[in-house]
Amino acid sequence: MSFLKYRGDSPGNRPLTFSTPSKVGDAPEKRAKVKRDLMAILDAAERYLGPQELDQVVRDHRNARKGNTADEPLNKLLLAEFDAARAKGRVDIPEFSWGFYERHGGQSAKAVEKRLRRLLRVREKKAELDRKLRAALHGPSLIGTK
Predict the structure, then answer these.
(1) How deeply is 86 buried, as exposed, middle or buried, from its count of CB atoms within 10 A (0-12, 13-18, 19+)?
(2) What pLDDT, in 10s, does the model give residues 3-31?
(3) What span, in angstroms and rounded, lies between the C-alpha atoms of 110 and 94?
(4) Which of 20, 87, 96, 101 is the most exposed place for a label (fewest CB within 10 A)?
């Protein structure tokens, strides 16, 4: 990436590198150098990408490191069973969660309830965004009006 090649505009600056020292030779001076190099790289990236996109990249990097990936098959099964139960009538979420836990095990009933509530909240947000988009698309046209 050419925007990370040199620190500053003067030709006397050395190329940017980001190599971390080994744990054996870890000294405060080396840590300070790594921080300076990282700050220079982040400054260049912020100038190129902008602050919002850089924040998103950092957020994505942090989330990827967490390792908390969604268990999609379990989420689909949970929502499918909840929708089937809701089709039969009113559903008490704590009771449903306890029954799901007894049938499938894995997490505690409280964890199943929290997962279900989170999935329902995400589903409702998506539906709300979809309703707003459809309303905006099917609204009155501003073209040709005076």
Answers:
(1) exposed
(2) 444 445 444 455 666 666 676 667 888 88
(3) 8
(4) 87
